[in-house]
Amino acid sequence: MERPPTNLRRHVSLRQLEVFEAIARLGSFKRAAQTLHVTQPTVSMQIRKLSEAVGLPLFEQVGKRVYLTEAGETLNQRCRELFGTLEHLETEVANLQGLTQGRLRLAVVTTAKYFAPRLLGAFCERYPGVDVSLKVTNRERVLERLEANQDDLYIFGRPPAGVEVEAVPFLRNPLVALGPPAHPLASRRQVPLADLGAHPFLAREPGSGTRLAVERLCDAHGVALKVRMELGSNEAIKQSVAAGMGLSVLSQHTLVGSGGEVAVLDVAGFPIERQWYVVYPRGKERSVAVETFMAYLLEEGTDVAGSAGSG
User: Fold this and answer.
1) pLDDT digit string (tens) for 122-180?
2) From 1.10.565.10, 1.10.10.10, 3.20.20.70, 1.10.1040.10, which CATH number describes the 8-81 domain?
3) Element (H or E) spanning 119, and its range?
4) Does domain 175-264 correspond to CATH entry 3.30.750.200?
5) Which DSSP helix (H) or strand (E) runs through 232?
6) Does the pTM of the predicted model rise above 0.70?
7) Cα-based distances in Å from 255 to 76, 234, 245, 309
8) For the chain, the helix, strand and coil percentages under 3-state DSSP, each to the nearest 5
9) Model confidence over 254-267: pLDDT tens digits?
């Protein structure tokens, strides 16, 4: 028989609840530890203390995944309410402080790393009192952060589907065809799209927004690409193109600092015009700092991000 719970206000810490919420959301002690940047034994210890304070087990393990018990489900619901209240309080306090002590949490997909630091650098210089954090990771992880409401704003090259969000375009994201400078197509003008399909092609991984845009263009014109390799990073593709391993398509933003290692090809249908979007959960309350940053993106984003997206 489980013992009655102790006084929760005296024996439960906010950190324990943060650890609990992360496990409930991710379904894994290991992933929660990685997300919170602590060791797995630390996570286990916090949950053990929390379970003792509640007086009931909070998780049960089936195979490699953990599931919430009935008590865990109840606590998880209350955690969401508590963290929502705390976030609301943070917003109210930030609004009272104006931009002297605000906070901005930004998560962006990997390709945005070529311009996001410039955007934030200029913003921080103008508003030094704002505490800014930037998380750069792949699309899947940014989507997880969005669904968990971990940040204030998110930057995507393709707005997420199936999630209640507002997506506001703020910067061009042209996709360009690339080849090594010595490639035969590099010196030609108005290259037919079919000629792109006649050479080995280096593709981004399945599900990539860049890859989907290229596939839509080629399918519309009946062109089949000869995919030689699939690579999961822009840098790997640029280096492989420079080494003469094939042609590819990347965001023009990725060419910042390339130093002539690759050449932009004049291929029919390119550049493929896309946009960068700043995204936030629909209905999410935004602080003065967040509203100011969004206005800054819309008014000055193109100029501050540099010429990579404006040519």
Assistant:
1) 899 888 888 899 999 988 899 989 988 889 999 999 898 888 899 999 999 999 999 99
2) 1.10.10.10
3) helix 116-126
4) no
5) none
6) no
7) 45, 10, 18, 10
8) 45, 20, 30
9) 887 666 789 999 99
